[in-house]
Design brief:
By secondary structure, the chain is an alpha+beta fold. Helix content is 36%, strand content 21%. The protein binds ligand ANZ and zinc ion. Residues 231, 258-261, 264, 337-339, 342-343, 345, 347-348, 350, 353-354, 430 line the site of ligand ANZ. One of its GO terms (cellular component) is cytosol.
Length: 881
């Protein structure tokens, strides 16, 4: 190699070496690694075609962890795979008129190359691809098992129907109530779908968030808890006599509600039902105004966050139900804030103590009746909403007859008992979590293994006929699922009666694929079972790394799926991921111009010339192409829409992968956001050039020392250098363990500075000290910049002496090197600090006394012989005069 750092040559050399020795193939129980297994895995990417900086950051964190732990004796596994099913492939297929399969496979090939150019320690022999039959066969197998056990069931669900394209749309394809392609007003349709009973596991999923996931970020655990959303309260009925056209009582004459505040039951002044509630439907017959209002409610967002903030609207139904405890008639309204999917789709309105009901009652002039007070808030006013209403702990019941004076818990017990005695209600736990609808009316996914027979109905595909292979030659054209026109796929015989039948054309939600892929990595090639004994070795996963955007759904489904596998006897653990790291987003500046109509055009930061003031703050920005000004739009997440992405490939080509890796690790701790900085990248590259130059400058001395990684010191300069290096190593080790990689990079920088400025004498002993120091340095830098450190390690002869840096033993802190041979002692005169003195560590009291008295800076405070000298060993000398 040349003495000038050439990243392209260096990285090419390192990568072909790794390939030649199959460096990253992980083998169960590998005797080379005495500390046992460590499974560190990144969330699998969608094969969009190109890596983005978020990927680079994610995988580099994973890779640093891999290399550090491997050098520490762990058998580490870092696999990779592809979340290859899903909608973007269908969209791309429509745009380019190629089958999703072709688009996906060529993207995978390209992204795999990009990952290889980053020098990641991936065991490619375990690569999994969700769209391959060898993988999705097991989704189908699980589906059948779950169906058999009743964990999967069929019911009708609501979908978005595009009447022009004649197709079902995903939520994200509906923009402002219209189809994203056709612009048609979207209708809701009820169709049969398959659901997985995740709600049966709600209690365990919730409990284990608290008890079994201490290695997860608090924030993610809270998000899981809220998503599962456990509420304790009472479910009870308002009886009524409302009859439908046939004279039958609607819902058997009971309007059920769920409340978390049964202590407020005597404060009910109205009830409200969801637009989809049977009483709303009943009342709307012959009431066009109400029909229109119901239609309006159904159009609106079903996102809960929106429900909370939107304007509360309602309309009376003209129907009345009976209060179960007072016997009073209560008017029923349709309210846009009542969700059909939660509880019973109906609420008791307690405007005095529920904020939503309060807003509603104010708007429609409904009575407000206070039934709760607290010791601290005797004053009561209906003029505005007061926060204290909501405090359960402080609540005391008033204006409620026999319940007056009870606190929350006592009132709940009393009300629940009275409702129960009347056969109208009981205590109940309600979850926000819904069962998981896994059917998708789309082509590019795992076929649902069902067959529809005119005589037998829906019949499961027999296990021996799996996989049901998805044809790879379809090109969706926007007019619905192409499988519906694919005769070869559709036609089959009924497994029960043998008559001609049709295959189900719905496919599975891609969250099914991502629910267990990380277990398939452990068992590549397993054809007899979804996972085999190797899975018991690697799982549960020691460290999972991915974006916070997956904090809820993906992680919850993966946890659920794991529990199902456990209950089927396929795995022996309860939770799949021991530790979770959610890496921060990658941000960059944005630049734009705005036209007269207010439309913004965004420019890529690479095309901008920035002028800064002397403090480095941006002054103005010009578009390189035309030299004209653009607006600076602030720092935002790298995204296509703001055109502020930086292409990793371009960075690697310009500076090398080691620079890109070093910058992303250095710029901020893994869990924080990372701000892209062109000058930061240049700085990272400059540092690596210095690393190279220093290594080459010391080549002769390191070779003279036989590339030894051990040394002893006798001169001051040698001792100081060893002490500094070992001290930095000690801190860096601590930071590596707590995944604080940015300070590990600064430790490397400090080490290089220290070595560069050391004033070592000539001679064999100094050579050895230097050789030891550089060997420590290379190994510390190796996890972050594996290429340059691999090549230098070999070039300087360490490889011959200590083996491949990949497997080299992690440098150990030498406690003896840390020891100070001299210590500094403070000198006080009459208790006042007057100076300090350095004394040999082993010095005795007399010697310390003499040295302190001889110290020039204190002599002027002492006249004559001091009365007394007190030595506090290791700390200070107090001279009393
Ligand atoms: C009366 C009441 C009085 C309520 C009060 C709260 C406070 P969480 O805690 O999130 O489970 N609710 C019940 N079903 C609903 C539905 N389908 N759509 C919208 N809101 C619904 O919420 C439970 C509370 O949400 C219930 O308790 C009910 O309002 C409302 F001072 O009942 B509450
Ligand atoms: Zn049949």
């Amino acid at each position: 190699m040349q003495d000038k750092y050439s990243p392209a040559d260096v990285e090419q050399a390192a990568q072909s070496h790794w390939k030649a020795i199959d460096a990253y193939k992980a083998v169960e129980n590998d005797p080379r690694f005495p500390k046992g297994k460590y499974y560190a895995c990144s969330m699998l990417p969608y094969p969009s075609g190109k890596l983005h900086m978020g990927h680079v950051r994610n995988y580099t964190i994973n890779d640093v962890m891999y290399r550090y732990l491997r050098m520490n004796g762990y058998n580490v596994l870092m696999p990779m795979g592809w979340d290859a099913f899903g909608m973007p492939a269908e969209n791309a297929a429509m745009a380019n008129n190629v089958p999703p399969a072709q688009w996906t496979y060529s993207n995978i090939a390209h992204m795999r190359e990009q990952m290889e150019s980053m020098g990641l320690a991936i065991d490619w022999s375990r690569e999994m691809t969700a769209c391959k039959p060898e993988y999705y066969k097991w989704n189908q197998w699980m589906f059948l098992k779950m169906l058999e056990k009743g964990i999967i069931y069929k019911k009708t669900g609501t979908v978005n129907w595009d009447p022009i394209d004649q197709t079902v749309l995903a939520n994200e394809q509906v923009v402002d109530g219209r189809g994203w392609r056709s612009g048609a007003l979207i209708e809701k349709r009820e169709i049969p779908m398959y659901y997985a009973r995740i709600t049966d596991y709600a209690d365990e999923l919730l409990e284990y968030v608290d008890t079994k996931l201490p290695g997860w970020p608090e924030r993610v655990r809270t998000m899981q808890t809220n998503w599962i959303g456990k509420s304790t309260g009472v479910r009870f009925a308002f009886p009524h006599e409302i009859k439908d056209a046939d004279g039958a009582l609607v819902q058997d004459g009971r309007m059920y509600v769920f409340t978390t505040r049964p202590d407020t039951i005597m404060g009910v002044t109205f009830c409200a039902v969801a637009a989809e509630h049977p009483l709303a439907t009943h009342a709307a017959q012959g009431n066009p105004e109400l029909q229109a209002f119901i239609a309006e409610c159904k159009m609106g967002s079903v996102i809960e966050a929106d429900m909370a903030t939107m304007e509360k609207k309602g309309m009376p139904t003209g129907l009345f139900v009976t209060h179960p405890l007072t016997g009073e008639q209560v008017e029923v309204w349709v309210g846009n804030y009542v969700l059909i999917t939660y509880g019973d789709g109906a609420v008791m309105g307690v405007p005095a103590h529920d904020e939503r009901d309060f807003a509603f009652a104010n708007k429609y002039n409904l009575p407000i009746k206070q039934v709760i007070t607290t010791a601290a808030n005797a004053e009561y006013s209906t003029a505005e909403w007061q926060e204290w209403y909501g405090d359960k702990e402080a609540a005391i019941v008033v204006n409620s007859g026999k319940y007056d004076g009870l606190d929350y818990a006592a009132a709940v017990d009393a009300v629940a008992a009275d409702l129960e005695a009347k056969g109208l209600g009981e205590k109940k736990i309600t979850f926000r979590l819904r069962d998981w609808g896994i059917s998708r009316q789309r082509y590019w996914g795992t076929p649902i293994p069902m067959i529809h027979c005119a005589d037998c109905g829906s019949v499961p595909v027999p296990e021996k006929d799996l996989p049901v292979v998805l044809p790879e030659d379809c090109v969706p054209d926007g007019s619905g699922n192409p499988l519906n026109k694919h005769e070869a796929f559709l036609k089959c015989d009924c497994p029960q009666c043998g008559k001609p039948a049709r295959r189900e054309t719905d496919t599975m939600d891609t969250f099914v694929d991502s629910s267990w892929y990380y277990m398939r990595y452990t068992s590549p090639g397993s054809n007899e079972a979804m996972v085999d004994a190797r899975n018991d070795y690697w799982m549960p996963m020691d460290q999972y790394i991915g974006g916070i955007e997956h904090a809820v759904m993906h992680l919850l489904y993966a946890r659920f799926w794991t529990k199902i596998m456990r209950d089927f006897g396929l795995v022996k653990f309860d939770e799949p991921f021991v530790n979770l790291l959610t890496q921060g987003m990658v941000l960059n500046e944005t630049y734009y111009r705005e036209d007269a109509a207010g439309k913004k055009t965004w420019f890529n930061p690479a095309d901008i010339e920035l002028t800064t003031d002397d403090k480095g703050r941006p002054q103005s920005a010009l578009l390189k192409a035309d030299g004209q000004a653009v607006h600076i739009g602030g720092t935002e997440k790298m995204s296509k829409s703001k055109n502020n992405g930086i292409d990793p490939q371009a960075q690697i080509e310009q500076y090398g992968a080691d620079t890109a890796r070093l910058f992303t690790m250095f710029a901020s701790p893994p869990e924080q956001t990372l701000e892209w900085s062109g000058s930061g990248v240049e700085g990272a590259n400059r540092f690596l050039r210095r690393v190279w130059a220093y290594g080459y400058a010391q080549k002769g001395r390191i070779e003279a020392a036989g590339a030894s990684a051990a040394a002893t010191a006798s001169t001051d300069a040698q001792k100081t250098l060893r002490r500094e290096l070992h001290k930095i190593l000690q801190q860096a080790d601590y930071d590596l363990k707590r995944i604080q990689y940015n300070t590990v990079v600064s430790a490397c920088m400090k080490m290089l500075n220290t070595m560069e400025s050391a004033k070592l004498e000539d001679g064999a002993e100094s050579d050895a000290v230097l050789s030891e120091g550089y060997a420590i340095f290379l190994r510390l830098l190796n996890p972050v910049a594996p290429h340059i450190t691999h090549v230098l390690w070999e070039e300087l002869g360490y490889g011959k002496a200590l083996g491949d840096i990949l497997n080299a033993p992690w440098p150990q802190v030498d406690a003896a090197a840390l020891e100070q041979s001299e210590i500094e002692m403070m000198i006080q005169v009459n208790g006042k600090l007057r100076g300090s003195v350095k004394v040999p560590k082993a010095a005795d009291k007399a010697a310390i006394e003499a040295a302190a008295l001889a110290e020039e800076s204190v002599q002027k405070f002492i006249e004559g012989t001091p009365k007394k000298v007190i030595v506090v060993p290791g700390k200070l000398v107090n001279i009393v005069v």
